[in-house]
Amino acid sequence: MDIRETIHPEHAKLLDTDGLRAQFHIAGLFTPDAMNMTYTHYDRVIVFGVCPVSGTVEAPNDVSGVTGTEFLLQRREMGLINIGGPGKVSVDGEVYGLGPQEALYIGAGARSIVFSSDDAAHPAKFYGNCAPAHKSYPNKHVTLEEASPVTLGARETNNERTIYRYLHPNVMPTCQLLMGLTKLAPGSNWNTMPAHLHDRRMEVYFYFDMAPEALVFHMMGKPQETRHIVMRNEEAVISPPWSIHSGCGTGNYTFIWAMSGENQVFEDMDMVRPQDLR
């Protein structure tokens, strides 16, 4: 498991491109027949990707050196969205079939989590996040149609988008983990503008559905000290509570967001006017 420490904003603004990427950028999430995990000390979220090809992949439980617990979800909850071909997730023997862009919530206490693909030629790709949890809620499979949608932005400002909230109080209970998927309208390329902060929560962005030559310039940093990280297909970026999180692509893309922290109020945002950015 890759470990990322928290970074003070005064430190972050001194980092060069390589330094910024080393602290916040996550690549190589999908290795065949493996579960790749990154642990960030921002709200102790684990970011992971699983791509089962030739057989099953089981989530590791020998994580006491990182979590200090007997098994991975002893005091944690997990959310994941499948961005690949159809696949299955077995949770303590109960099997959930996940089609493309379908989600699964796994409550605290689950011991055995096993991933598989229906077709090795078109494997599933499970992208997920895992956060500390004080209570166990029921597992739940959520389709795109069952997610809670909200449409924001406008074509005139190049930021028209629909946000599908999967792990959200409107859909189901969780301890603190929020998770969803945002689709940009054709011709829009800003995923969030005006930008905002939510000092009470951290966030992770995962970009996908991008053409091989496409890029997203992910904007981060304090509003008066903005930086950017170049993102490619199926890469993630950690967004600290003190940072804006906005992106602009050279072509169409979709992204998955996940949040963890003090509350679950999606609208709890500290807005930043474009004219105040620097």
TrEMBL record:
Broadest EC class assigned to this enzyme: isomerase
Molecular functions per Gene Ontology: 4-deoxy-L-threo-5-hexosulose-uronate ketol-isomerase activity; zinc ion binding
Protein family (similarity comment): Belongs to the KduI family.
Pathway: Glycan metabolism; pectin degradation; 2-dehydro-3-deoxy-D-gluconate from pectin: step 4/5
Cofactor field: Zn(2+)
The entry's keywords: Isomerase, Metal-binding, Zinc
Protein name, as recorded: 4-deoxy-L-threo-5-hexosulose-uronate ketol-isomerase
Note on how the cofactor is bound: Binds 1 zinc ion per subunit.
Xref: HAMAP family: KduI
Sequence positions that bind Zn(2+): 196, 198, 203, 245
Its EC number(s): 5.3.1.17
Free-text function comment from the UniProt entry: Catalyzes the isomerization of 5-dehydro-4-deoxy-D-glucuronate to 3-deoxy-D-glycero-2,5-hexodiulosonate.
Metal-binding recorded as keyword: yes
Gene3D superfamilies in alphabetical order: Jelly Rolls (2.60.120.10), pectin degrading enzyme 5-keto 4- deoxyuronate isomerase, domain 1 (2.60.120.520)
SUPFAM superfamilies to which the protein is assigned, alphabetical: RmlC-like cupins (SSF51182)
Substrates-to-products reaction catalysed: 5-dehydro-4-deoxy-D-glucuronate = 3-deoxy-D-glycero-2,5-hexodiulosonate
Source organism, top-level taxon: Bacteria
Gene Ontology terms: biological process: D-galacturonate catabolic process; D-glucuronate catabolic process; pectin catabolic process
